[in-house]
Design goal:
By secondary structure, the protein is of the alpha/beta class. Helix content is 38%, strand content 15%. It has 8 helices and 8 strands. The chain has an 8-stranded mixed beta sheet with strand order 1-8-7-4-5-6-2-3.
């Protein structure tokens, strides 16, 4: 709640534009369903725990719970469907109309605008040290960040297209496959291009897989300060349209 509302308040105050103040209305659209889920889930669990049962049923229930907890693998509880919402990693705003997908339609079951950016590990080009993506994006701020996944040439074109747009971070992150040649420095509006190489993981899908990208496909992500995706653009783009879409998404 603090990250969601705080960034929108800061944007509205800093801009001084009454039209930007409309972004405050999206706070309730995004967070009210989450609050309702938390209250309903808490009430249900509290009722189950405090509901009186006959001694024999209570004994059997406790035995069953202990057996399940004993044999269940580590990390099984809470279930993934609840764990994601409880810890905030599975919350998505994709169904409330505050975040937008552009370009090619996203494949079913893949990341879309409104989802939270997965926190995989990456290496900055020519570095042996790796760090998680959220740490690389930096601490909470009022700026959205551009992240390009796929073709580095498309990433450079996107960086040029967004030159001059306010409320965008000064670093643009381009995630490329292992072995990609160094990306030349940006000579435009001073934004720094940071080339990232994904660390291989045996335990989770890569960002490319989660976006449903095929070979030579590219996705342009606009990441909000709360690490949710304000915009996802798949496929070819026209520079003016991309800049316009990013401006609109950053003010939602």
């Amino acid at each position: 709640d603090a990250a969601n509302l705080g960034c929108k308040l800061a944007l509205a105050i800093r801009s001084g534009d009454t039209s930007v103040a409309g972004s405050l209305l999206t706070y309730e659209k995004e967070r009210r369903p989450i609050a309702e889920w938390v209250l309903a889930n808490t009430d249900t669990n509290f009722s189950r725990i405090t509901k009186g049962l006959p001694p024999m049923l209570a004994f059997l229930r406790n035995c069953v719970i202990r057996i399940i907890l004993y044999f269940a693998p580590d990390g099984s509880f809470p279930p993934p469907s609840h764990k994601g919402k409880m810890f905030g990693t599975g919350i998505s705003y994709s169904g409330v109309g505050t975040c937008v997908d552009y370009g090619t339609s996203p494949p079913r079951g893949t990341l879309v605008a409104g989802d939270r950016l997965p926190d995989h590990n990456y290496r900055v080009h020519d570095s042996t040290q790796s760090a998680d993506l959220h740490s690389l994006l930096g601490p909470l701020s009022t700026e959205c960040t551009l992240v390009v996944v796929g073709d580095p040439e498309v990433g450079v074109q996107a960086t040029t297209a967004v030159s001059g747009i306010p409320d965008l971070a000064k670093k643009v992150y381009i995630i490329c496959p292992e072995g990609t040649p160094p990306i030349p420095p940006n000579k435009g509006d001073g934004r720094e291009v940071v080339q990232l190489t994904p660390e291989q993981s045996l335990y989770s899908k890569s960002l490319v897989d989660q976006l449903g990208l095929k070979l030579k496909d590219t996705a342009i992500l606009l990441v909000r300060p709360d690490t949710h995706l304000a915009m996802v653009h798949r496929g070819p783009f026209e520079a003016t349209s991309l800049a316009s879409n990013i401006k609109a998404a950053a003010l939602r």
